């Protein structure tokens, strides 16, 4: 079950955590439908940080693969196969 309510505003979607208690959840649902809840826009992401993260992510896997020795790659594959096929 999804525990987030999505409200669409001019600034984009806003997600709120829904309470677990059924009575509180019902009240929150009504408040969202009737517009009684104050809406706070989500903070936007820093474009500079996003670009740095994307830049590192695009080269990360390739660079790691180049640096791994064939023995280490084989060891990692063996561990993955063991984890995938173990009967736990």
Question: What would you note in describing this structure?
Answer:
- There is one protein chain.
- With about 90 residues, the chain is an alpha+beta fold.
- The protein folds into two domains: about 5-35, no CATH class; about 45-85, no CATH class.
- About 55% of the residues lie in helices and about 15% in strands.
- It has helices at about 20-35, 45-65, 70-85; strands spanning about 5-10, 10-15.
- The longest helix has 21 residues, at about 45-65.
- The two termini are about 25 Å apart.
- The mean pLDDT is about 80.
The largest β sheet comes out as: 2 strands, antiparallel
Question: How many helical elements?
Answer: 3
Number of strands: 2
Helix content: 55-70%
Strand content: 5-15%
Spatial order of the strands forming the largest sheet: 1-2
Please compute the radius of gyration using only Cα atoms: 23 Å
